[in-house]
């Protein structure tokens, strides 16, 4: 077990007013470490520290901000093995995921936004010729659009990736000259404190980065309603995002929200079914289904429906569920006992609604400890079932049939969510035509891969705003116009 952690406020490691709470390893149910429980006053103190640091940091030359972010990436990389071990213990990720998709992606994002700090923030606009009138003499007016930092940004991060998700918020926010208050997910906050230590070692001035954690919802609430906070960047459930948006609305605080998903995978008769099954199968193997971009809602054209269900069943049969530290494990545990129970209740609900449990559906009996869920495939579903409409956030895939293209598109769009959808078809012209009709922030055509410079975010209840690549720099900035006579 690691030593009890402390809050990081104004550059000082601070004892928490609320004591500590246990962080549990989802694979072993053992205590990983003790996370600090901040008081409401300490959260507001962190926001005040960020406010005090903002003027100097926002005026820091971009080259200096870039150097600090680059150095932080180097420090994180130096200790990659220890960081991956901690991330695995907190989140239950497999070894490959902890190293390659958590810590490595976190480091890569700091390096990306070290370069991002040097991207131009000014754009010259075409001059405008004005006739003489009430506004003054005739003349030519030049104009400049300038991106300015927003101010103090609260970053509330998700539990499924304690490195990549915080890094995707902290690094672009700092690159743009903002200061941050980070409230990590209560299930796995310890990794984020290691990120803060790396930034401090890299030379980030006191108050630029502040970390406050807690198991109580009051900690997150304080990080949103603190008077010194100008913007909230949140990744998590739609229900929590809606409550945050209400508070932000009252204070006119800027928002960046990545919320729930129920990704539709439209599979047409002419699709490469092996490719489709492998892509859809990532729902089971990637973070044990705890990812909002997963293709969890498979909409298969009637001609390939049975064949696709058969391939997905075979894919499931090859997955090793168990200890994430063991070589060969593909599916580790979910984050907590409560979440395991929630997922299992959805599987049981699917049975009652009339879905056919093709594979999975029972808790893995050989695993005596840990929060494991059997990867599950539910077939013969209908659009009105709750397992089809609601985000389960676990290794559960539902399949329903369609006949004509328009029907498939309508089924895909019949959702409160719209984060990322997918289309599999051998007819690329059709695939792109269909993609343009899907009400989702992103569409993968014959792939579940991501282009990490492409804008990321959702339609409908899947979020507000876009980030990733240069779009993240835009998200953490305000546009200012400067006009002058030519």
What would your notes on this structure say?
The protein is α/β, with parallel strands linked by helices and 486 residues long. It has two domains: 7-259 and 462-485, Aldehyde Dehydrogenase, Chain A, domain 1; 264-457, Aldehyde Dehydrogenase, Chain A, domain 2 (3-Layer(aba) Sandwich), CATH 3.40.309.10. It is built from 15 helices and 22 strands. The protein has helices spanning 40-59, 62-78, 80-91, 95-116, 164-175, 190-202, 217-225, 238-251, 273-285, 305-317, 337-353, 386-389, 405-413, 428-437, 470-475, and strands at residues 7-9, 12-14, 20-24, 31-36, 122-130, 139-149, 152-156, 179-183, 209-211, 231-235, 254-258, 264-267, 297-301, 356-359, 376-379, 396-402, 417-418, 420-424, 442-445, 459-460, 463-464, 477-485. The strands form six sheets. Strands 14-15-16-13-12-18-19 form a seven-stranded mixed β-sheet, with helices on both faces. Helix 14 links the parallel strand 18 (420-424) and strand 19 (442-445). The protein is globular. The termini are far apart. The mean pLDDT is 96.
Give the strand order of the largest sheet, numbering strands 1, 2, ... along the chain.
14-15-16-13-12-18-19
- Determine Rg (CA atoms, Å): 24 Å
Number of strands: 22
Tally of individual helices: 15
Nutshell version of this structure?
With 486 residues, the protein is α/β, with parallel strands linked by helices.
């Amino acid at each position: 077990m690691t030593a009890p952690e402390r809050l990081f406020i104004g550059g000082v490691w601070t004892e928490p007013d609320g004591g500590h709470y246990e962080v549990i390893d989802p694979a072993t149910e053992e205590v990983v470490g003790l996370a600090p429980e901040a008081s409401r006053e300490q959260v507001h103190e962190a926001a005040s520290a960020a406010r005090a640091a903002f003027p100097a940091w926002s005026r820091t030359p971009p080259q200096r901000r870039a150097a600090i972010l680059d150095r932080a990436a180097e420090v994180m990389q130096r200790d990659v093995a220890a960081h991956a071990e901690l991330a695995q213990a907190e989140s239950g990720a497999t070894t490959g995921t902890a190293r390659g998709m958590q810590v490595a992606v976190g480091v890569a994002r700091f390096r990306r936004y070290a370069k991002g700090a040097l991207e131009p923030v000014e754009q010259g606009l075409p001059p405008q010729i004005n006739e003489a009138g009430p506004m003054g003499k005739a003349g030519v007016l030049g104009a400049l659009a300038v991106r300015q930092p927003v101010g103090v940004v609260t970053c509330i991060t998700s539990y499924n990736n304690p490195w990549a998700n915080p890094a995707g918020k902290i690094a672009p926010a700092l690159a743009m000259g903002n200061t941050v208050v980070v409230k990590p997910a209560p299930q796995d906050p310890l990794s984020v404190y290691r990120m803060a230590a790396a930034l401090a070692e890299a030379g980030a001035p006191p108050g630029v980065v502040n970390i406050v954690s807690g198991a109580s919802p009051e900690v997150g609430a304080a990080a949103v309603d603190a008077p010194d906070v100008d913007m909230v960047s949140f990744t998590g459930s739609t229900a929590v995002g809606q409550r945050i948006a209400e508070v932000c609305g009252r204070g006119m605080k800027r928002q960046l929200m990545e919320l729930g998903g129920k990704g539709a995978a439209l599979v047409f008769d002419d699709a490469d079914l092996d490719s489709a099954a492998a892509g859809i199968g990532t729902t089971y193997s990637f973070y044990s289904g705890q990812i909002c971009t997963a293709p969890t809602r498979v909409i298969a054209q009637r001609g390939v429906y049975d064949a696709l269900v058969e391939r997905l069943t075979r894919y499931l049969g090859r997955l090793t569920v168990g200890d994430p530290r063991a070589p060969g494990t593909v599916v580790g545990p979910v984050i907590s006992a409560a979440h395991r129970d929630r997922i299992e209740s959805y599987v049981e609900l699917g049975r009652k609604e009339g879905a056919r449990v093709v594979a999975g559906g029972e808790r893995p009996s050989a695993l005596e400890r840990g929060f494991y869920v059997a990867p599950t495939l539910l077939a013969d579903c209908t659009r009105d079932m709750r397992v089809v409409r609601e985000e389960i956030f676990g290794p559960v895939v539902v399949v329903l049939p369609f006949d004509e293209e328009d029907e498939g598109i309508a089924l895909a769009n019949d959702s409160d969510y719209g984060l990322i959808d997918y289309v599999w078809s051998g007819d690329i012209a059709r695939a792109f035509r269909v993609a343009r009709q899907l009400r989702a922030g992103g569409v993968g055509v014959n792939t579940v891969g991501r282009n990490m410079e492409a804008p990321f975010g959702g339609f409908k209840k899947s979020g507000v705003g876009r980030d990733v690549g240069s779009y993240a720099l835009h998200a953490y900035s305000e546009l200012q116009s400067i006009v002058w006579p030519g």
